[in-house]
Structures are given as C-alpha cells and as structure tokens.
C-alpha cells in the first residue's frame, strides 16, 4: 500500500496526532535489545514476582497465541535474596532455556556492587555466577549492563564502566573471557553480518570515542573521535559504517568506511556542514542551516552511494524542523515539517532520484508536540 492511499493515511492520523516532542531528525536508533528492567525500593521484588516458562515450539499458533505458554501451572517464584534496586532480565531466545538476571545499584559509583545470575530452566531457579566476572586483579567486577547479539542466542557482552572492562561469552555464560579496555564501554552494538565484530561508543566522554573489534573484544582499533552517532549499512558483500563527526565549527561531517576506518583509502566524505544527520533504511537525510534565511533550514536526501539533493516542499512557509516518519518498501518517503510554532504538515515524496527530490502535502496541521 502506498503512502498516498487514503486508508493508509487515515490509519496514521491517531498516531501522528499523539507523537511526542520531536526536535529535528531522529538521529541514531540503538540496536534493539529486548529485556526487562525493574527498578524500585528494597522489598518490591521479594513478593509476588513470577517467572514464566517460554515455549520452545515451531508452531505458528503458539507464536500468535501467547496464552498457550502463560499458564499458572508452569509459573514459579524464585527469591534472589538480593537487595540491589535495579534488575535487568533477559531470556536468550527461541530454542534456549537460558535466562540471565543482573542485579545492581541504580547509580554506579565507586562503592557499587552487582550480581549476575543465570537460569537454565526458563527462570525456575537461578545460580549466582558473579565469580565468573572478575577483574585482572581477581576482584569482582561491577557489571552495569549486558548486550545480547541479535542473532546468536548465546553471545553476550557484559560491561563494567567503573573499571573499564568487558566480559564476553559465546556459550551462554559457561565460559567468560575478561578484557580490559582503555575506554569506558558505555554503548555497544554488534555487526550482524560478522560475529567477531562489534562497536563500542563512549558517548559520555569528552571526545566521544568510537572503537571497533573484529575478534570478539580481544583487541580494538580506534574508529574516530567526536562521533555524535553511527549507522550500519549492511550490504550483500560487506558492512559499511556511517558516522557523524562533530567538527570545531559545531557542524557535522558525515563519513563512511567499509573497513571501519582502519584504511584511509576506504574512507569517503559523504556530506559536510550538516546540523543533523540520519540514516533510515537505504536513505540518508541531512539538515543544514539556510544562510540566506536565518532560522530557516534545508533538507537533503540521498540514497546510499548517490549524491545528496535538496528537497523541495510546495510551501512558502519557513522550514524549521524535519522528522522522517517512514520509508516505504518501494522507496517513498514520509516527512513531517515544522513551519514554526504549532504549525506542522505531513508531506510524502513524489519524486526521489539523484537529481530531484520533490514532496507534496498529504496532511496539514499535524499536532506532533
């Protein structure tokens, strides 16, 4: 169904009218991590907490009808006897009975502690395996988070930002390898096409460093400083990395590399002088300030490996902010443009190629604040 289809637009009206505040492009969307995070006061989790067994079945019916696996007869309660106020729980996924549970302080400080538990029976019982996460000096680590590979069920990376360590397991915690780092492992994402490679972005450091490993964390190479965001481009033969780098002018330069910036010859300057940048599906979007009209902005669109083209909107109003709502399967774009104050309109693309990008008005007065 195309964006111009009246029913399709009608179905979007409730959604568009209830969107939260959007100030410009959405930027980087973190790799999806599906887990439960519970926070509260001491005792909140001591009574009434249940663990529900996940069904391991290929039945389409079971996938669609979750009531088939949520049953009082297979629910259980397990007391961790732990006073930490932050719990992070993750089931390894279909075909596995492994459940990880991380208990830690809500705020990580010098005196913080943590416990890592593992269940091999869908959460019926848990075993404290914190002693598998030790620093080089044999002291217990303070685990603040763990990251799960989107495809490989037993591939986890646990991070200790306090002591700058990562802990990698490829067998659901049976063996854990410890690696010290020279940076704080704040955020991690996996390359889904190459198991050994993942990125770590120290978002909270002054230099916002980005690092890449291709041997499961054993060694890292430096991919860049002052990286505001990065984006994956998974192609048939390779993975290309896009980064938006903050320059001294406070503008963004957009770079790409098929070698993750290990070789200069593979680095390409994609766009310069951007105020905002986003990659969505196979499209790149950049916003710049309009030097001729203060307060006004310009919106540029490109397909990967093609040139950027300034988008044309059929209005004489100011173009203040842009939000890319969707990229359809056939390459049509939906963009909300704020024209100042509460005036925002929804536009859909009529023409998108390496020479022209044109939009037409589809739905006026979108209240997306």
Structure description:
This protein is mainly β and 369 residues long. 4% of the residues lie in helices and 38% in strands. The chain is built from two helices and 27 strands. It has helices at residues 6-16, 60-64; strands at 36-39, 51-52, 75-76, 86-91, 99-104, 114-119, 127-128, 145-148, 156-160, 165-169, 177-180, 187-190, 198-201, 210-213, 221-224, 227-234, 239-246, 252-257, 267-274, 276-280, 283-289, 297-303, 309-310, 321-327, 333-338, 344-352, 357-363. The strands form seven sheets. A five-stranded antiparallel sheet has the order 1-4-5-6-7, with no helix packed on it. Strands 8-9-10-11 form a four-stranded antiparallel sheet, with no helix packed on it. The protein is elongated and about 65 Å long.
Helix/strand layout:
Elements: H1 6-16, E1 36-39, E2 51-52, H2 60-64, E3 75-76, E4 86-91, E5 99-104, E6 114-119, E7 127-128, E8 145-148, E9 156-160, E10 165-169, E11 177-180, E12 187-190, E13 198-201, E14 210-213, E15 221-224, E16 227-234, E17 239-246, E18 252-257, E19 267-274, E20 276-280, E21 283-289, E22 297-303, E23 309-310, E24 321-327, E25 333-338, E26 344-352, E27 357-363
Antiparallel strand pairs: 1-4, 2-3, 4-5, 5-6, 6-7, 8-9, 9-10, 10-11, 12-13, 13-14, 14-15, 16-17, 17-18, 18-19, 20-21, 21-22, 22-23, 24-25, 25-26, 26-27
